[in-house]
Design goal:
Elements lengths: L1 E7 L3 H12 L4 E4 L13 E2 L1 H11 L6 E5 L1 E5 L5 E5 L5 E4 L1 H14 L3 E3 L7 E2 L2 E2 L2 E8 L6 H5 L6 E10 L7 E5 L10 E5 L4 E7 L3 H12 L4 E10 L5 E2 L2 E3 L15 H13 L4 H28 L2 H13 L1 H7 L6 H10 L1 H12 L1
Parallel strand pairs: 1-2, 1-11, 2-8, 5-13, 11-18
Antiparallel strand pairs: 3-7, 4-7, 5-6, 9-10, 10-11, 12-15, 12-16, 13-14, 14-15, 17-18
Bound molecules: flavin-adenine dinucleotide.
Length: about 350
């Protein structure tokens, strides 16, 4: 079978690209190892920017929004908490299964072919399994087979776990736990969906043990527990007639693990510059890649901090709540970090001094 474009992976990135390219007239195939689309473990917390981009790509409204989030509670290691936002809708929670399926169905109706339960193992130049292609796109997630096969660089991984629980919480606020005892190298979260909460954490090691401890602290019963991986670091964007998008390329914010925006944006920019992969990379780096680099730098600093530092942060965060509310943006967190640094030079100098010495 001959195709212009073979896309490996029917997640957000792959479905989105299949939509745009099939509408442009490219003969496109999506190969997905799972029997169903949208079975990915995900908090589903996204910005309005993501919803707008998604609806632009689909050229129709999504029905996958299940909750609106007005703010966040940050819980510090000594249990002190700060409430940020609260003034307006700052984010949305989506039903990932529906979100992904809407996209796949739309791509199929635009002419894209889908092969489900089709795990791609053998990839050769211009051919994978029995599919001949002109261009190959790796949209196959964090542990990308395409990236491995074409030596497109290595990334680190965080293991992530999430389940669902009935909880008596504010339905329009997410909760973030910053505590090295809960997760030594990331954070834990509660994302309300309206009738149930998504409870999870990410860390490199002892995932299940740490999660069990966390749900014990919360005193909740958790069901539907699933695990996944978050890539930390970017890979090469392309090599010859092969390009990567989404998690496969590592286009995830290292500060939050959020990758839906990167997955959608990379598919849009790749499609816009299809065939000119150099330009795709250039445009992505300009729009969002620089931000991802800043997130990687911020994560390096985060890893050097301890619980005492987090507790010292409490006072500064509380004093700067207006800045956080004004400049907070879940896709571009460096904006608020920059404003925070400008307003707290003494604190930042002390912190940097501590990190150096
Ligand atoms: C626990 C957790 C919570 C998260 N919460 C959020 C959040 O709240 N907000 C946010 O923005 N991001 C979140 N993310 C990240 C987000 O889920 C990803 O960034 C997003 O799914 C990336 O989409 P993708 O299409 O690039 O990859 P994926 O969604 O991983 O899709 C890749 C697809 O490729 C398929 N595949 C892989 N290998 C093969 C193969 N060899 N052959 C055929 N098919 C293959 C897979 O089955 C999968 O369907 C979270 C991640 C985790 C793990």
């Amino acid at each position: 079978m001959q195709f212009d474009v073979a896309i490996i992976g029917g997640g957000i990135a792959g479905n989105s690209l299949a939509n745009i390219l099939s509408k442009k007239g490219y003969k496109t195939i999506v190969m997905e190892k799972n029997a169903e689309i949208g079975n990915k473990v995900c908090g589903g917390l996204v910005s309005e920017r993501v919803i707008n981009l998604y609806e632009k790509i689909l050229d129709s409204k999504t029905n996958a929004i299940i909750n609106e989030i007005r703010g966040a509670y940050i819980i510090f290691p000594d249990k002190k908490q700060i409430c940020i936002g609260g003034d307006k809708t700052h984010a949305y929670v989506i039903d990932r299964k529906l979100f992904d399926n809407e996209m796949a169905e739309m791509a199929m109706s635009s002419g894209a072919e889908y092969k489900l339960k089709f795990r791609v193992n053998k990839i050769r130049k211009n051919k994978c399994d029995n599919i001949n292609y002109k261009w190959l796109i790796g949209a196959d997630g964090a542990r990308s087979t395409v990236a491995k096969k074409f030596e497109m660089g290595k990334v680190e991984y965080l293991n992530a776990i999430q389940g669902e629980a009935k909880m008596n919480i504010d339905d329009d606020f997410v909760t973030v736990f910053i505590d090295k005892k809960i997760s030594p190298d990331f954070f834990a979260w509660i994302i309300p969906t309206g009738n149930i909460a998504r409870v999870g954490l990410a860390t490199k090691e002892n995932l299940r043990i740490r999660f069990n401890k966390f749900i014990k602290i919360l005193n909740i019963n958790v069901s539907n527990i699933k695990v996944g991986q978050i890539p930390i670091g970017m890979r090469r964007f392309y090599r010859g007639n092969v390009a990567l998008i989404g998690d496969a390329c590592g286009l995830v914010k290292a500060t939050s693990g959020g990758g839906i925006y990167g997955a959608l944006l990379s598919s849009e920019l790749l499609a816009e510059n299809f065939g000119n992969f150099k330009q795709y990379k250039k445009n992505f780096m300009k729009t969002f890649g620089k931000e991802l680099k800043k997130c990687l730098f911020a994560r390096k600093i985060f890893l050097k901090l301890n619980n005492k530092d987090f507790m010292d942060f409490y006072k500064n965060v509380k004093e700067n709540i207006e800045i956080i509310n004004k400049y907070g943006d879940i896709d571009y967190p460096s904006n608020v970090i920059k404003k925070f640094i400008i307003s707290n030079p003494k604190f930042i100098i002390e912190l940097l001094w501590k990190l150096i010495t």
